[in-house]
Amino acid sequence: MGATDAVAEVNAIAVGVKVWLPDGGEEAYISGEVTSIEGDKVTVQIPGAGDKVVSAADCSLCEKATQEDMVKLNYLHEPGVLNNLQSRYGLDEIYTYTGSILIAVRPRPEPATTASFTPTQRNPRVESNDPKKPTDPP
Questions:
Q1: 10 in the Ramachandran plot: left (φ > 0), alpha (ψ -120 to 50) or beta?
Q2: Rounded to two decimals, what is the model's pTM?
């Protein structure tokens, strides 16, 4: 068995493996556990929703832990990234890296428009910084 075969075996969908599935409801993805595989069809048990039969191509493998730097994720795909951000947010870890890029998840659910938000902040006057306006001669 070569190195490529070993990687393919570790990243394979198998019975007992946790996977992400696209969800047409409120959540973008739902997680479940593979209970059987028949050809290209995979049966996934979803907690509280029963079994769902899907194509193997629709399954994305789940991470076992969250990562501060998402470059370290074993499975770098949309459901994995979203779950990592959501899990870290739940731990009050609002900053997450992707290499040298910092992702900040907004720490408060309240809207940006509050009583302290004044009209001057919404429509600031920037005439003095306008690059098209001629400056006074020296």
A1: alpha
A2: 0.64
